[in-house]
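Supplementary Methods. Inverse-folding protocol.

Structures were first reduced to a discrete structure-token string of length 307. This string, shown here, constituted the complete conditioning input.
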């Protein structure tokens, strides 16, 4: 039982990373019906932004030091990372996606553009910063707790709580605010919404701000837990988060959140009982089985088109 609870705690941490990234996929898809395949690389950019913000505030790579304690550096790094990462997402939307949307381009071209944007972010990072891996500074003093034979750290608890608080806040925004109502309305009928006086472009920008800032927050939390940064770190975790969102029901933020934790649990439990080389094979086979039984995902619903 102790081993089971330990694996559950590990799965909750991994699921938190997947869920935060999957929520960004879900927001963009819900409003634009666009699969933003560059989202995983925005997560990577967020991790590097957090790294440079933290090291600058700590005075590690400058000729002066602010003398700030680590907890203050963390409190400043979080909003800096989320704001700057949101700026990256909005820039991609403005430069790459909006011209195609305004011209009525087929979705296939938008998907190809999203893939290219992700590759550009990867190789721009590689060209500017080099291939050397970077070590994220320790912003939180690790404290290890043991309860009933289950060992966990304060950073792990912070990551899990952050994921649940972010989901609760996002769900409240989507379901209770006028912005959330407009986002849901655009998802339902994007062509009729301008006739009702709702600024579609503004809502789209807000959607990218929210989704990209969540990717930046996920990048910060991931870098604090696994402090090795490299240009391709967002590729695989981004794809996995996308698959988790699809399994959960990519049009519903509840599905994206649950799908992220489902994938985290599957990966950890497979490693607990099988060799680690079987992790992706068994986990994705189970996810494929779920989709074969419910193609719309756990929370997804079939979309009908009226003619």
């Amino acid at each position: 039982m102790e081993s089971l609870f330990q694996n559950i705690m590990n799965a909750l941490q991994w699921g938190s990373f997947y869920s935060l990234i999957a929520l960004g996929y879900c927001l963009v898809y819900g409003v634009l019906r666009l699969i933003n395949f560059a989202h995983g690389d925005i997560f990577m950019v967020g991790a590097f932004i957090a790294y440079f913000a933290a090291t600058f505030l700590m005075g590690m790579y400058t000729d002066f030091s602010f003398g700030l304690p680590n907890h203050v550096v963390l409190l400043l790094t979080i909003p800096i990372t989320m704001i700057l990462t949101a700026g990256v997402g909005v820039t991609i939307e403005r430069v790459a996606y909006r011209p195609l949307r305004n011209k009525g381009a087929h979705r296939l071209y938008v998907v190809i553009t999203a893939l290219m944007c992700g590759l550009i972010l990867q190789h721009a990072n590689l060209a500017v910063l080099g291939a050397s891996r970077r070590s994220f500074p320790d912003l939180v003093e690790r404290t290890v707790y043991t309860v009933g034979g289950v060992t966990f750290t304060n950073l792990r608890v912070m990551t899990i709580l952050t994921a649940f608080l972010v989901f609760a806040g996002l769900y409240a925004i989507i379901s209770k605010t006028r912005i959330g109502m407009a986002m849901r309305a655009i998802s339902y009928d994007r062509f009729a919404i301008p006739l009702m006086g709702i600024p579609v472009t503004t809502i789209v920008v807000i959607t990218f701000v929210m989704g990209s800032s969540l990717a930046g927050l996920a990048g910060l939390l991931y870098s604090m837990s696994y402090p090795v940064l490299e240009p391709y770190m967002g590729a695989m975790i981004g794809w996995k988060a996308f698959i988790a969102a699809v399994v959960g029901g990519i049009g519903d933020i509840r599905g994206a959140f649950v799908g992220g934790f489902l994938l985290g649990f599957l990966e950890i439990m497979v490693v607990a009982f099988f060799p680690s080389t079987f992790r992706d094979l068994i986990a994705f086979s189970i996810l494929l089985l779920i989709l074969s039984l419910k193609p719309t995902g756990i929370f997804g619903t079939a979309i009908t088109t009226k003619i």
